Amino acid sequence: MTTIAHLVDDTTPGGVMRVIEHIQRDADMARLARHRIIPLPRTGWAVPRVEADLIVSHLSLNWRRLPWLMQLRAIHSGTPMVHVEHSYTAAFARHNVARMGRFSTMLRISFSLFERIVAVSEAQATWMVEKGLADAEQIEVIASAIDVAPFLALHPIQKAPRVIGAFGRFEPQKGFDTLIAAMRASPRQDLELRLFGDGGEREALVALAAGDPRIRFMGHVSDPARAMGEVEAVAMPSRWEAYGLVALEARAAGRVLLVSNVDGLRDHASAGATLVRDGSVRGWTAALDGLDTPDMVAIKRARVDASEATHWFAECWERLVETLLKDKETAHAA
Q1: Residues 319, 296: one domain?
Q2: H-type alpha helices, the chain
Q3: Are 118 and 166 in a shared domain?
Q4: What's the pLDDT tens digit per position in 69-84?
Q5: Structure confidence at residue 291 as a pLDDT band (50, 70, 90)
């Protein structure tokens, strides 16, 4: 049976590990190959010799990692290698990269070491091509996926939403400061904002809420589907987001979904999400104030699309694996 080794250097709870866990548990992915997860430290690492038919990197790319990647490529010159880019996007670069030329050079060199680069959204892939980070032929778009069955089991919203949920780590990326400020500026006293999660910005976010009784901090979520069942709409004011698993979950649950007009969140708009094009506090206040009776046709379409996510995830990976292994056989025969 085909063996795929997945290299991971971020095993903290979050989107990357949720996708990795899905790969391990999903029946379709299990039929495709035997998946080995290889955790790696972010510093002080030795280059392992990986016994696998295909190596998939879920690693964080940077200049320090680059010599290590070169050694990995040299040791496994006959093994196809794929990199899944979970993090870097156009909006990430705008907010975090001071020297775009140097950053782009690092990505171009790193990407060149792999047979394929997996973009987790169409928006991310478009950015890669436009910036010349990789050729279009090298890029495969495979949207991230997890098991959404617990969310599909929830009853979809059928009335104007009043309880709004925000899910994720309390860190600048998620834009919860903007959402809280928008809620405080809203004149609607019938709305309630529940923030699920924790993180380094908790104290600042609590201070920003200033005791507004409409804003509640719910703490860490051990059961995301149960938490989703407590809300009627989901807001994602992220400053950058390669894909956005919470958006997939919200669509599967039949919740009204408001997302920032950035990166992979744009991909969800074609499947039922509402883009908040003005990402300012004023723009998000208008979006919250405009919450009304949902379009049930759009909600149903969003649920159907979300229900097929795991199928398409496995099918895309199957096509990619078959192509790379066939190319490997052809190269060996030559």
Answers
A1: no
A2: 15-25, 27-32, 66-75, 90-96, 100-111, 122-130, 149-152, 176-185, 202-209, 224-228, 245-253, 265-269, 281-289, 296-307, 309-333
A3: no
A4: 999 999 999 999 999 9
A5: very high
